[in-house]
Design a protein that fits this description.
This protein is 15% helix and 29% strand. The strands form 3 sheets. The chain has a 4-stranded antiparallel beta sheet with strand order 2-3-4-9, with no helix packed on it. It has a 4-stranded antiparallel beta sheet with strand order 5-6-7-8, with no helix packed on it. It has a 3-stranded antiparallel beta sheet with strand order 1-11-10, with no helix packed on it.
Length: 141
């Protein structure tokens, strides 16, 4: 604008840096991510020997972002442990409750259901079965 001094190089650089940092924060928590398909295992994940998982137990595989549980009737369920709120990997299992480290969302590891917001969408269920005595979950299971 005429009559207005040009911003200093320092002001321009500082503004650019703050805009970049703000953009990263917004991307991590942007609205509308609920319902977006979170990452899923792209190959079958071996979750251990079938005989080592008792009825009524839950097991978290932190490396592959999968949780598996065996109901009292012996059936298995598995879920992706990528939070449906902002895509953070969940690495904490307290009994049968999964706790997201990013914003505190909580999920039931046996059903994938949301127990505590900000997440509003359940965890993505994964196919799971026993193959050759091993519990296998994920795409292609």
């Amino acid at each position: 604008m005429p009559g207005r001094p040009a911003p200093s190089r320092r002001t321009v650089l500082r503004s650019a840096a703050l805009t970049s940092v703000a953009g990263l924060g917004a991307a991590a928590c942007s609205p509308g991510e609920d319902g977006a398909a979170p990452a899923r295992p792209t190959a079958p994940v071996d979750l251990g020997a079938d005989g080592e998982m008792a009825k009524g137990t839950t097991r978290l595989d932190r490396d592959h972002h999968v949780v598996v549980s065996r109901a009292d009737d012996g059936s298995l369920k598995a879920f992706s442990t990528v939070c449906t709120h902002a895509g953070c990997p969940i690495r904490k299992l307290e009994g049968t409750k999964l706790v997201c480290p990013c914003h505190g969302s909580e999920f039931d590891a046996r059903t994938g259901e949301v127990l505590h917001a900000p997440a509003t969408v359940p965890l993505v269920e994964l196919p799971v079965q026993v193959k050759q005595g091993r519990i296998v979950a994920g795409t292609g299971a």
